[in-house]
Amino acid sequence: MATPAAEVFARVEKEEAEKLKLITVNKELDVEFDLGNLLACDPNATSVSAFRQQNKDEFLRALARDNTQLLINRMWTLPTEKLQEAIVAKLPEPATRLPREKPVPKPRAPTRWEEFAKLKGIQKKKKTNLAWDDVNKEWRRRWGYKRAKDDTKDWMIEVPHTADPNEDQFAKRMKAKKERVAKNELNRLRNIARSEKMKVPGVGLTPTDQPTKAELGKAMHVAKVSTASVGRFQDKLPKEKEPRNMGKKRKFQPLIGDFSAEKSKQLDILKVMDSKKPVLNMTKAVNRQMREEDAEEAAKRRKGGKKGRGGKQQGGKKGKGKGPGRGKHAKGKGIGGKRKHK
Q1: Which residues lie within the region annotated Disordered (predicted)?
Q2: In angstroms, rounded to a whole number, what is the distance separating the alpha carbons of residues 183 and 175?
């Protein structure tokens, strides 16, 4: 009679043997592998009878499991290395060219500083993130929170000799910092717009040396509509004109409301669709006929005026030249002189 320990060992050995059987997969034709893309191509024909007799989901799952097991077994034949307490395999170069879903991204256009640095031969030097702080006597970050040489924590600022003694130097420093941040942000947006071949996003009035009248009007309009009421209660300046090319707010009909107006509108559309004759707008037609008549009369007046001016020139100024009676045999008699009739 076997001991309980021997039974346990036999059961464990049987389970391990079953696990080893699951690792080995037999195929009539060898599976083609492309380990660079982690791709396995099974050329074996699928049994149609087995697919119809068995459960379809279980059959496809078992087929996918066998091919995946073959791919993993093939991966373990590759050279491995230990990286950060993990064993990784070195994949070879892919052999199958797979199509891309999207086109290859275009290279980013260089910024103005990158172009200038390339022209002058300036190379980027990597700086450490830490700097020595003489005040606190420790290493701190160069930028950000608790940075080294942070002058915003000073409780006293020396007033320059050329500055106004009554001017707040703390407020002046904060204002200068805000201006630098805004300038950097504007330059960043300009670089993005230039790389995308777009205009700089409109944010009111961009800083220019001599802004035009249109830019000033646009900045004033943006400032007016930036209130909580979107400029509804803002007073207008005397002789102020509405800005152009600022867009119009679209108006939509209510979903639930005046059903009679909607009914009449739909009936008008149906009448136009059913009628074979075009709709004649009498007012528009009369106005067009009047404009054509006025244009014809104006053309006749211009033509008549040209003829009248030409006649005066022929009878007046052109009489001084060589005309009839002023040739070599005229004997000094002009147009108005007496002629002898035979």
Answers
A1: 234-257, 281-342
A2: 12
Residue 195 confidence (pLDDT) above 50 = yes
Do residues 144 and 131 touch, judged by C-beta distance below 8 A? Answer: no
List helix spans (H) across the chain: 4-23, 48-53, 56-75, 112-120, 169-195, 213-224, 259-274, 282-315
d(CA 36, CA 94): 4
DSSP alpha helix (H) spans, 207-341 = 213-224, 259-274, 282-315
C-alpha atoms less than 13 angstroms from C-alpha of 251 in its C-beta half-sphere: 1
The tokens describing 279, both together, are 């709709």
Q: ∠ CA(266), CA(270), CA(272), 5° rounding?
A: 120
Place of tokens 């205009």: 199
Token digits of residue 332: 């000094």
The structure tokens listed for 295 are: 């244009």
User: 3-state SS of 142-156?
Assistant: CCCCCECCCHHHCCC
pTM of the model: 0.31
Residues forming beta bridges with residue 210, ordered by sequence position = none
* Distance from C-alpha of 39 to C-alpha of 91, rounded to nearest angstrom: 12
Would you place residue 53 in the very low, low, confident or very high pLDDT band (cuts 50, 70, 90)? confident
pLDDT digits (tens, 9 = 90+) for 233-281: 888 888 887 777 666 667 777 777 777 888 888 888 888 787 777 667 8
Which amino acid appears at position 68 of this protein?
T
DSSP category for residue 39: E
Per-residue pLDDT averaged across 183-199, rounded? 80
Q: Are strands 87-89 and 130-133 parallel, antiparallel or unpaired?
A: unpaired
In sequence order, what are the residues at sequence separation of 6 or more whose Cβ sits closer than 8 angstroms to the Cβ of residue 181? none
What whole-number distance in Å separates Cα of residue 321 and Cα of residue 315?
A: 11
Angle between helices 4-23 and 56-75 (to 10 degrees): 90
DSSP label at residue 342: -
**Other CB atoms closer than 10 Å to residue 195's CB: what's the count?**
13
